[in-house]
């Protein structure tokens, strides 16, 4: 195999593995931190610096995850007819939507009645993959153009009065503006829509187009230069637009506070949020191309099986929550808390930040061998269903 190919795949796996590890920190905080359901860790009036950055660092996870999903889709589509590649992306996208609703929702809630259904990153990734599967039949530059318009242009809705109610209001929320949006289905059933689809589709489409830099025969030095230049440009764009509060985020920052400057809007992902997170990610991809250390090999293990890890880590975290729930003296009467959609997670349950970090490290360590096993299984088996995991 071409050494450049090995390096580029390794760099993607390392970065993806790193964000998967960091992602688990945020989800561990959701279940185990004492104020996770009583306060916002980004609330500058009440947070602490360690708590703020515990949440803020995880902002990098979703954009990098979705962007690299697009890049991987490009690499997987090479040497395939566009209709074959497109059909697979559509089927895998719909599969991810199903997994989000049926499997991830249950991992979050442990509620077999599904009174609260969660639409998050896998939901947005799945529908973005469906859109990419439809667009892949067209010109590469059409995908690039649509991706850039969605990436850079979706904050135009900050300046437009949008419908809030009725079918049109609901569609706008689902497609563009979802922000902790609760869609009521009945008096005892609702959907929590946290990821507006099309802004994330813009991330996936641009990630797909960036996959061209990893095409067969593409010169490594040129790829590295493009990654560094594009990443630096995104960071510069973030700094300029954020400093002057020109465009790209609905919330202006307090010019007396660095934490306010960094507190960009994730729901839906603002342009400045995407520039702030993907700029460093592109630079990291360039710097990781020739990295091969014991640590990078461990991290890349998670990155080679991200879907497997993602599903497993939720179940492990929630099972540990159940154990901690009973060890903390709670009983059957406390399993359901009307203020929290997760069973076995009362509103005022939890521990300090040090305990959250200890549990997080334990979760990541516990998943290493299962991820290593599954990666080896995928390498030595060719069942059709493995392509969907």
Mean pLDDT: 95
Tell me about the largest β-sheet: 3 strands, mixed
Count every beta strand, where a strand is a DSSP E run of 2 or more residues. Answer: 3
Distance between the termini: 24 Å
> DSSP strand (E) fraction?
under 5%
The total of helices stands at 14
Shape: globular
The oligomeric state is: single chain
Taking strands numbered 1, 2, ... along the chain, how are they ordered across the largest sheet? 1-3-2
The chain-level structural class is mainly alpha
Structure description:
This protein has 389 residues and is mainly alpha-helical. The chain has one domain (3-388). Helix content is 63%, strand content 4%. The chain has helices at 3-32, 49-56, 61-77, 82-109, 121-135, 140-153, 166-177, 197-210, 220-244, 258-262, 271-287, 294-304, 306-327, 353-380; strands spanning 116-119, 181-186, 189-193. Helix 1 (3-32) packs antiparallel against helix 3. The longest helix has 30 residues, at 3-32. The protein starts with a helix and ends in a 9-residue tail after the last helix.
């Amino acid at each position: 195999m071409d050494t450049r190919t090995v390096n580029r795949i390794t760099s993607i796996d390392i970065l993806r593995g790193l964000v998967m590890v960091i992602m688990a920190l945020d989800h561990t905080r959701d279940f185990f931190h004492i104020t996770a359901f009583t306060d916002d860790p980004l609330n500058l009036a009440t947070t602490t610096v360690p708590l703020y950055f515990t949440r803020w660092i995880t902002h990098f996870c979703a954009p990098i995850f979705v962007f690299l999903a697009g890049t991987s889709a490009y690499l997987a589509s090479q040497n395939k007819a566009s209709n074959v590649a497109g059909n697979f992306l559509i089927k895998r996208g719909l599969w991810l939507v199903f997994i989000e609703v049926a499997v991830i929702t249950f991992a979050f809630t442990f509620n077999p009645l599904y009174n609260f259904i969660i639409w998050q990153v896998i939901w947005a990734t799945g529908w973005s993959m469906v859109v990419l599967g439809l667009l892949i039949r067209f010109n590469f530059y059409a995908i690039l153009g649509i991706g850039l318009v969605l990436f850079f242009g979706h904050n135009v809705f900050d300046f437009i009065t949008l419908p809030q109610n009725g079918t049109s209001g609901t569609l706008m929320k689902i497609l563009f503006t979802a922000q902790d949006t609760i869609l009521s289905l009945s008096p005892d059933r609702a959907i929590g829509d946290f990821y507006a689809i099309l802004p994330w589709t813009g991330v996936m489409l641009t990630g797909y187009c960036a996959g061209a830099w990893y095409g067969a025969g593409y010169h490594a030095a040129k790829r590295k230069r493009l990654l560094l230049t594009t990443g630096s440009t995104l960071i510069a764009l973030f700094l300029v637009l954020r400093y002057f509060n020109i465009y790209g985020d609905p919330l202006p920052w307090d010019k007396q506070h660095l934490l306010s400057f960094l507190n960009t809007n994730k729901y839906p992902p603002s342009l400045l949020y995407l520039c702030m997170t993907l700029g460093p990610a592109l630079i990291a991809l360039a710097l990781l191309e020739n990295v091969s250390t014991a640590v990078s090999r461990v991290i890349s293990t998670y990155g080679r099986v991200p879907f497997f890890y993602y599903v497993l880590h939720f179940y492990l975290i929630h099972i540990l929550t159940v154990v901690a729930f009973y060890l903390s003296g709670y009983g059957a009467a406390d399993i359901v808390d009307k203020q929290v959609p997760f069973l076995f997670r009362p509103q005022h349950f939890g521990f300090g930040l040090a305990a959250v970090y200890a549990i997080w490290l334990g979760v990541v360590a516990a998943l290493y061998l299962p991820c290593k096993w599954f990666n080896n299984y995928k390498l030595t088996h060719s069942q059709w269903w493995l392509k969907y995991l």
